[in-house]
Amino acid sequence: MSAAIPPRPRLAATRWRIGWPRRVFSQVLLMQLAIATGVTVLATGLFLAPLGSQLDDQAMRRALAIAQTTAARPRLAEALQHTRPSPGGPVQTEAERIRRATGAEYVVIMDRNGVRWSHTSPQEIGRHVSTDPSEALAGREVMQIDQGTLGRSARGKVPLRDADGRIVGAVSVGIAYETVRGRLVGAVPGMLAYAGGALAAGALAAYLVSRRLQRRTHDLAFSDISALLAEREAMLHGIREGVVALDARGRIRLLNDEAQRLLELRTEDTGQPLEAVLPPGRTADVLTGRVTGADLLTVSGGRVLVANRMPTDDGGAVATLRDRTELERLGRELDGTRGLIDALRAQDHEHANRMHTLLGLLELGLHVEATEFITEAVGVHRATAEQVTERVHDPLLAALLVGKATVATERGVSLALADDTLLPDRLVDPPGLVTIVGNLIDNALDAAVGSREPRVEVALRADDRTRTVRLRVSDTGPGVPPDRRDLVFTEGWSTKEPPAHGKRGIGLALVRRLAERQGGSAQVSSSEGGGAEFTVVLPEALAEEPGGAPLTATGEPR
Known about the structure:
phosphoprotein, EC 2.7.13.3, membrane, alpha+beta, Beta-Lactamase, disordered N terminus, 15 helices, transmembrane helix, Heat Shock Protein 90
């Protein structure tokens, strides 16, 4: 048997792959370094590109200037006319002196036939020039880069004139092109040094900016920042609490869906000043910081809100809003239930007393008196219910008034309907009117308790022509001083101790808001009995009559 040979392990090829960094610091640093390097290379190239042409132009102008200076010497023209071309002649001597003094490559003086009278190489004297001298001999000055017997050079040619101004020859001066190229090459290291310095400064600035950005972004990756932003948007628009962010100038910077619903705002209001999109009032004062505190109560559009405001480091603020309408309603229902329980407890006690009285009358054989006693006790409650239902045809409001009458009786307060009360069963918003009437009666009962003759009167009138409902609730309490009649409708203002479930100062503010939401009004004045009289006017609070005639005070058609 042959032993099985185990397979040889294969070495996995390791490939080094340089990926794009994830951190914001690294990405921004690399991008800024790339930008700085590109800008530096581009600026250097843009500077070096025309440098060669500029140096050529400077060399040609220098050669032309030397030629003009040489041609301006009058002895050269005389020597050219009265001597022969020779290596030791005065023309050659003067030309070489000028060449050595100016550093030119050559200074060539020629006659009208193009024959050289001077040259750097003496053997060239007496020969024709290698380039065309016609333009200079024609009286024109020439600048050019040309190829001659001494190689490529920057040349300047000018005509040579005698004392009378006649052209007797020409002067050609050349500057070696290698000198121009040397100047160009010599300028490159300096440019590269400047470019390197600029690149180093740009790299340092990029590093500092990236470090600052790293601290501000907590060294997160762009993907993490994007994910956090998406999560923040989902969280802000998903929570059931209004969030309003303001900048240092009081403009709306962020507005989630719940805040839009509670404040009745739109997405387009983002970026607008808060005071421009909210009506004047306590809500605007709380959100802008003019009213400070924790868990501040305010009313907006018929909703009871709890607002908190937290300033931010940049001078702005973030405000949170919680809808407490249902909680406030439940609290008031709890107050009403407690009052009803107390009333029922008192009624039970009174009922027990009546039963004991009735039992005593029966045991004594006073049957007639017992019958009269029961009839009187039942008739009082029945009369109250019948009086309410005859004048108030809406079932919700009628039930409220009957219940409040019972509570008022147990608290020792007389609750009565005014003689002109008449309300048909055509209310547009029965729950709203129930809230208004209930709040006003509760306040009136609290005020009337303890007065000499405690009494509360409720008047409800409907105008069929304008479909307006007018409500009036008066009491015999201490009344409201004239200087405080505007304050009683302000959120948070109250003269009573707060209940166990929350704060007071909401009922009358809610009454005014509900009235104003329907285009009406709520006011307070003094009643005839010396107490307070609240008047609420609700225009178009009745639905159109289907076709019947208006009702009279007795409930019968006219």
